Amino acid sequence: MYDTWYCFSPAKNNCTDAIACFNKGLPGFSAASAEYDMYNWNLKMLELANVKITRSEEAHVFAGVPWKFGPKVFLEPSFSLTFRELKERFALKTDISVRSTIVLGGDALADKK
Q: pTM (2 decimals)?
């Protein structure tokens, strides 16, 4: 069984309903929360692969909901399909700053021949 952060983030609510859910202490399940969860999933997977991530402590309010975005990292499937591949990509010490925006694709760390 997996934790919710790993496998469940629906984008089913409009902005008004998402704010109402947030105000009740429930997940918003909106497009914005799904995007946030996708970035958060990538960061957590990188942290599990021993990448040092400096996360944002400052929240910014969008449509009445506070978000702590940063850094923003997108992992394309061509970059790594398995956790083992992800760890191999970051075998060396790697730090990602709070201001980073990164798209990692299959050619991001291609071997030079």
A: 0.83
